[in-house]
User: Fold this.
Amino acid sequence: MPSIPEELATLISDLETFISDGLKGESLSKKAKEKRDAFIKRIKEVKLDFPQDFKDKSEDSDDEDEVDSNNEGGSLHSERTDKDEEAGEGAHQSPPVAVQDLPFVFKAGYLEKRRKDHSFFGTEWQKRWCALSSRTFYYYGSEKDKQQKGDFCIDGYFVKMNNTLRKDSKKDCCFEIVAPDKRIYQFCASSVKEAEEWVKQIDFVLKDMTGIIPEDEDEQEMYDDVGATEFIDDDIYEELPEEDMPTPPKPPPKVEPSSKPVAPVAADKRTDYQNYYQGMWDCTADQSDELSFKRGDAIYILSKEYQSYGWWVGEMKGAVGIVPKDFLMELYAI
Assistant:
């Protein structure tokens, strides 16, 4: 029996993957669905007629699924192209690190990452487990991987939403991380809200790195009480019960422009009781980099670097932002 050329066999396999998987989520008319099913049936018949030409490719496909279970529909050739692309772009700037060993993670979750180059039948968007750790953005095949597929330092980049990257229902869920004369990284989240949260967290870290968190330039008026002889009657002041004490004013968000935060040593949140605090009053965020919380809410403090300005960096329910330390009290008595 004559054999099929390898290039044609690869094309048929890619075509089958594209028709069966690539069009799975598309809204097709009844007539288009019938034609798709007819093509899939015909391709399977061809593969049954030439089993010797497609046996190895099926095994390669199985191996590929084991290596990257999140590569939706890409052929072995397209996966190899993806690896070559990442290696050529210098995507690995940090030593190999497992997902569970990442320190100081601001945000993590599954995103679709757009490949720089892809074949016609290859997958343009690949599902990746992404994590923003300190000032480095990592992406993995899954949340259990022992080594990242790539990473890059976000220093010098800026992040923005971009609804022109896709034409399907997820076009408003896309964002990109760009910098002059550097590779552009483009991602798609599962929802618009999730994409906006990624943009917010990345933008927060970028502002924190460059020291541009707004600084109140108004100098506080200084008083000189030296030599004062005026008598003050203590009886004119009314002492209020502790529970009726008014909410203290929030301190101005100040940061030294020349300083850059250094990521603290990673701690186990399950046992790091001394860094758990609770709100004494309700606090509503005035700026995008602040956390809102209610009285009694538990907040885990990530950093006290801005303590001299009255602010700490805290985390609550997965969100990270600055909080006024005078609004907090220790949650556990140690």
